[in-house]
Design brief:
12 helices; 488 residues
Length: 488
Amino acid sequence: MPNKMKSIRTRLFLTLSITLTIIIVLFIIANNIILERFYIYSKENNLLEAYKTINFYYNSEETTDIDSKLQEMEINNNFEILITTPYNATVYMSNNDFTPSYMSIIIKREFLHNASAIYSGDKIIINQSQDITTGYKFIYLTATLDNEYKLYIRVPIAAIKESVKISNTFLQLIGIITLIISGIIVVIISKRFTEPILQLNEVARKMSRLDFSSKYKETKTNDEIDNLGKSINVMSNTMEKTIKQLRNTNIELEKDIEEKSKTDEMRKQFISDVSHELKTPIALIQGYAEGLVENVANDEESRKFYAEVILDESNKMDVLVKKLLELIKIEYGALELNNSEFDITELISEIIRKSQVIIDEKKVNVIYNKDEKVIINADEFYTEQIINNYFTNAIKNAKEIEGKKEIKIEIEQKDNKTRISVFNTGENIKEEDLERIWKRFYKVDESRNRQDGGTGIGLALVKAIMERTGKKYGVENKENGVEFYFEI
């Protein structure tokens, strides 16, 4: 498992490194493809603004010392400026190379190579070209001022190549530094991220051996891992409590059985039942716990589902063990009946009310029209268990027959006895199964899923209670359904 934790760190490092490398490469490509075009576009706007400014200088009587303003413009924008009269007399010239004769040659395109127009207006033309004699690339503005002076501005664009090269070198340097710093940060973060997972793995590993001494150390982050750790702790406490109850009860039962010379028989039966029924939920808990530790569930919803499955299976184990213990106590003579008078009608109504959610979910019509009180003398707790087992079994097995999906509960009084029956529409039980259904863990429909299948102890518990009381109970196949009954 530590190797798997290391692989998470490696994946985090590689993912971040590859992402940063791709971003840097994209920046370099963008520099090579876009930067020069953007530079030319910017210079085009600068040239147009320069034209407007110079035109203003020569048309405004308030403007003085134009030459110094032009020199400032040259320095700020890397311009070379030439202004002539309509007859090519020089008004202003940046240097001796940028002369009227030079521009005359440029305009005639005698020494131009790969010339291309960038902008063309009423009085303005902007071209990009390469001088054959020097090999340098320039952007040229040729325009006529309002006073008919000729304006020529030249901007070298060779500098942009150097800028791109410098920018790419800088990006590569920054990329290397970023990768180094990111690697250090990822190592630190991944360690903090994997430590709680390793802790969870250790807790789950010990739990798989029924060792609940280790607990996840909760933090104040309240993130998904911390919530998962809390759920694991709840599950561990539940399982620990259940196992302790199982062990304590097993010790008590062994003493009881020793007194009645049934130690071997009871121990074998109990261990067989427990190992048989707890094998599946323990396997599920271990599987989902390992899935959480190995980061199979990589989003919050999946992690929550895994944790809920683990808690659900833990609760099922708790219910199963308690029912099994209750059944064994009854079967081996530990049943103590506390008879009292109570209203059986009210008891049945309360059972129906508590089951209303599942009744609505299964879309079953429950028929129970008993309004008057029926006072009986019996053990209320075990009577409720019998009725509840019959009613729950009816809900699970009720099926639609001839357009009806019903459960019918009836109370009949005769000869100082009260007969309670629970009927549900559905398939009849096969004759060979009518006796087998009262055995522990026996299920007529073995394909039924874990959620709907129950523990398989309910009818065995009914049988044990009724045989201790000595009253009649049983099941009968009826037209379009099955009816379970017992007498008080």
